[in-house]
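Lab meeting notes turned into a lecture example. A postdoc, R.K., suggested we walk through two folding results consecutively so the class can see how the record format repeats. The first protein's sequence and structure tokens come next.
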Amino acid sequence: PAAVFDVEFKDNKTLSFTQTEGENKGYSDTMPFTAEEIADHVYMVHWQENAGIAVIHVQNWNTLEVWTNIYVPGQPGIHMKGRMRL
């Protein structure tokens, strides 16, 4: 599934996002997140949305690549790879 999100990491504890392209265009939420550096400038970032959706990113800031895993309760996982734009 093709999807584009604007994500803002507000204070190293909270993120907000809005889906700007894709099936759920306009969907937005704000919630706490956890990030851990797993290699030099590579982070595993995860959060749970207020709707119960779990999201796990691996963000490579060296190459600006992101791998996203989304788990909606009762549905198969969604796995995507894309590029980050600053």
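The second example is placed directly after the first for contrast:
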Amino acid sequence: MLKVFSGIKWAIIVTILLLKTTVLAQDFEVAPITLNFAVEPGDMESQIITVRNHGNKPQSFVLSLGDMQKNRDGKSVKVAPGSTKRSCANWITLNPSYFELAPNEAKEIEVLMQVPPSGESSRWGVIYVKTAREQSALEVDKIVAAGITVSPRIVVNVYQSPGSNAKYFAKISKLVEISKPQDSLRVFNVEIENTGDNRIDCKLYLVASNLETASESKTNPVRITMLPEEIRTVELKLPADLLPGPYSVAAILDYGHRTNLEAVQM
């Protein structure tokens, strides 16, 4: 039976008996690598990214748009532009998207965000910055279009959320111990969800309270950035120096914004 409480932190509590036991890619640079837009619906705004050629010969550069999603481990998964409901790829214009730089030359690229009147929710996408080498027809690989071979790239993350969007909500939905009796450390999987409509920066940690002495031990917080609707499973370990005894263990999620959080007790 679960009991739901209003409180200061999201927590799932279990009682256990503890036994002692600026980015460079090869020869070019892109800055910044994150663009944060706060454009209201129906408006537009432009920001600048700068590409610099650190090589000793001229290089051509190609900029393109894409989308990404996060898996439960927090890793980004590349998907086609415009293929997700949270994509902002169709709202972005890059000028220019193809250019050449001499050695040590830099160029500013305008990133224009045009939000339609219906664009009230948070969106995101990526800009790929790549070097490209023109080729003859005989050199063109059959998986590459237009006679251009793409080399290593830098990814610029783009986030858009209207400045009036104040929907910050998150929760812990599951706390499960995954360690085995013979393990030297007590290990837990904590499942957290961003149930709001904004990107959030969270701190997640465990607090072990000794039921006999009332002493507490807190793990170092794991810092996590989560996108709206993202679900993340995080592994947390209790300190190895806890004294034997009965403990109450809570997983705590702190994501700020003066939100009124809740607690779920098992």
